[in-house]
Amino acid sequence: MISETAKAVSEAFCDDKAYSGPTPQELHDIIHQDSILPEQGLGWKAVFDRIKTQVLPNLLRTSSTDYMAHLHGPSLLETIAAEVIISTFNQSMDSWDQSPVATEIEVEVINHLCRLYGYGAGSDGVFTSGGSQSNQTAIILARDWFCNSVLKYDIKKHGLPENFRRLRMYTSEISHFSMEKSAHILGLGYESVVKVPVDRRKKMDIQALRQLIDQDKKNGNIPFLIVGTVGTTDFGSIDSLAELSVICKENNMWLHADAAYGSGVIMSLKYRDRVADLKLCDSITVDFHKMFLLPISCSAVLVKNGATFDALTIHADYLNREEDEEDGYINLVDKSLQTTRRFDALKVWTSFQVRGQQGWEELINKSMENAAYLYGKLKEDKDFEVITEPEISSVVFRYVRGSEDTDTINKKIRRCLIHRYGTVIGQTVSDGHVCLKFTLLNPLISREKLDNLVETIRDLADIQK
Ligand SMILES: *Cc1c(COP(=O)(O)O)cnc(C)c1O
Predict the structure, then answer these.
(1) What is the pLDDT of residue 4?
(2) pLDDT of residue 465
(3) Range 461-465 average pLDDT
């Protein structure tokens, strides 16, 4: 079963287009049936046939060099092998007696990551389901740290303080929506999230941030957290963590870095200066299923002061007894929002050793250099406008020639690319205008590919007019 699946998967991979499936309606018709739970089981062979004809050919191929839409890409082969082990052995990371060596590996990987990002003794971290959960974890730790140590209020025991409506966190207007979502889930509401404007380079406007905090304080609000983004989802822009760190110190606030996207840059000696200030932050979101090219899901949250994980610790007699810890049995559930949890750390452990510093350097540099190349090319081309100079590996631009409705033209270009060319690129909005986006995570993308794609886009634009 496993080996025939592997064979079918590799055959389906032969098609090098990102998408060769049909339209949404046609897909619905292919997949829909009265029930997926027949009275009698069909058996593996029948279902496998269905998988081979209906599913595999219609899957999006994130490994394709024609896929550059979102922040995930091909998976490194050794980490697909690791996935087989992870699923087969089904360790759960909550308690030592469900994951003995896996627990050791996660602890080892977390310790290495803390050093890699410049954290010292006392730092800690945990693997999570993704950047959204990493951000949420950090916001919980920030809120609890602030209530406990600044407001002298035990939030874990009593729930939100009476003046909770006054708590404020600050993040740029283009930061990830998991900030608002977390604020809502934590009982703080969207109103607690102050959206700070960005400058021309799509970085948080520090002057505006200072004014907003001062104004809030004057109005009796309580600033407790700043979230800087290291690699905004659309533009890959990096907020100035050094300046944010000064403001946090002045105001006794927590600094979280959402580096879901940009965390991968640390693997490049050539470019790591761009993210070196991560070490100044109280917590860092690292996503391995984005720039690091690991299979979904794989993420971690790192914390400068590991003791703040106490916010998430609660003991159960059947799972994580207090005496375990005293006897040297580590139960990682003490740091996690999840209970049952995947052994994702194995993928990081494997790929770091397989590739080494040099191997990683090449992967990351290639994607950064492709972005710089495309930027240079489009900047010189009068048919296009490029929104910002890339700091990581995304290039956002628009086709602008002619007086026609360029928003519609840009939208149509993207759709045509999917259905006519099997090429999937991104689309977003900047300053009210529709833009196209190349997210160049795949290190196999060549300059020639980029040159050809720009010409295809120009041709498609001409046809639309
Ligand atoms: C992708 C992303 C997230 C969310 O991460 P998931 O792994 O998708 O949950 C958060 N922040 C930024 C900046 C992102 O790009």
Answers:
(1) 96
(2) 67
(3) 81
- Per-residue pLDDT tens for 119-130? 999 999 999 999
pLDDT of residue 381 exceeding 70:
yes
- From 80, 75, 56, 52, select the one nearest 64 (Cα to Cα): 75
- Give the Å distance between the CA of 436 and the centre of ligand 1: 19
Cα–Cα distances (Å) from 130 to 34, 87, 139, 176, 184, in that order, read 34, 18, 14, 13, 18
- Residue 20's pLDDT band, with cuts at 50, 70 and 90, is confident
What pLDDT, in 10s, does the model give residues 133-162? 999 999 999 999 999 999 999 999 999 999
According to DSSP, residue 196 is labeled: E
Answer yes or no: is the C-beta of 260 below 6 A from any ligand 1 atom.
yes
* Residue with CA nearest ligand 1 atom 10: 131
- DSSP secondary structure code for residue 337 in this structure: S
Per the CB < 8 A criterion, the answer to whether 115 and 302 are in contact is no
Residues in CB range of 274: below 8 A, 6 or more apart: 238, 262, 265, 391, 392
With a 6 A CB cut-off, is 258 part of the ligand 1 pocket? yes
Please answer whether residues 125 and 113 qualify as being in contact, where contact means their C-beta atoms are separated by less than 8 angstroms. Answer: yes
Q: Of all atoms in ligand 1, which is nearest to the CA of residue 230?
A: 13
Pairing of strands 299-303, 167-172: unpaired
Whole-number Å distance between alpha carbons of 236 and 394? 6
Prediction pTM value: 0.97
Q: What's the 387 CA to ligand 1 centre distance in angstroms? A: 21
